[in-house]
Amino acid sequence: YNSEPKPKNTLIDWNIFNSLRTSFNWQGLVYNTENEASVGFRFQRNTYLGMGAVVGYERIFEEEFGVARTATQSGSFFGAPERSARFVAPYIYGGTRPSKKYSLNMFLLRSTGSFDFDFGAEPKYPRVSPAALADPNAPLDPGPGKTWDFNLGIDYQPTNELNTSFGYTLSRLVRKDTKLVAFHENIFSFRSTYQFTRFIFARARIDYGTLSSNARAQFLFGWTPNPGTAFYAGYNDDLTHNGFSPFTGQLEPGFRRNGRTLFVKVSYLIRRSFGG
Length: 276
What we know:
Elements: E1 11-24, E2 30-43, E3 47-61, E4 82-96, E5 102-116, H1 130-134, E6 143-156, E7 162-175, E8 181-195, E9 200-209, E10 214-226, E11 229-244, E12 251-267
Antiparallel strand pairs: 1-2, 2-3, 3-4, 4-5, 5-6, 6-7, 7-8, 8-9, 9-10, 10-11, 11-12
């Protein structure tokens, strides 16, 4: 339901949303069933705020992760071949763009029954299931956990030519049975574009993730005078800071370069017609 908009009021309009979803495979196995309900509000200055919750039930089966057990063969799971969990995931979101220069948006979710598939996030986060704590080589032992998911985006455009954005993502899961952290990831992203003319631009992008302690950067110059004709020149860099080498798996203090690339791409569309 969407209310009738009133553009001059502080609260311009509001809405209520509800959705019931389920998924299953062609063998008739139901994987999940969930119901989502939310309410949202839209205000002046391109500002919005909403909140909601997803309540549901999820199942996973060992044949999705590898071999299924038989009378003569062990399965992919330690213990029962099927796992299920009920979850409640409230969330809140919002954003604002008070002027052309600035904008901000965010999303926060807390789930009380998300699955840890027991893959681990080595080398910083080993498997934390009961089976893996007893034997690191034990088969998978998935189980529910509590998660935090948070996203923040900030855009800044001081001029028509320059646009920059910053993003932050947090993802964290803690097992319910062992109370241990399955993984914790922070991702920082920066992007900037400068449009010199309609056809010439320069772009920079840098991403850093704490789980891998890895930073990737790309710097690109482009010239696209017409459709089919383009020239690109760029530089990519891949660094690790106090992380683990992707080649040896050993801890490497300080900054270490994993690789870098210089590249040029040129394209030209040849137009020619043939006729009698």
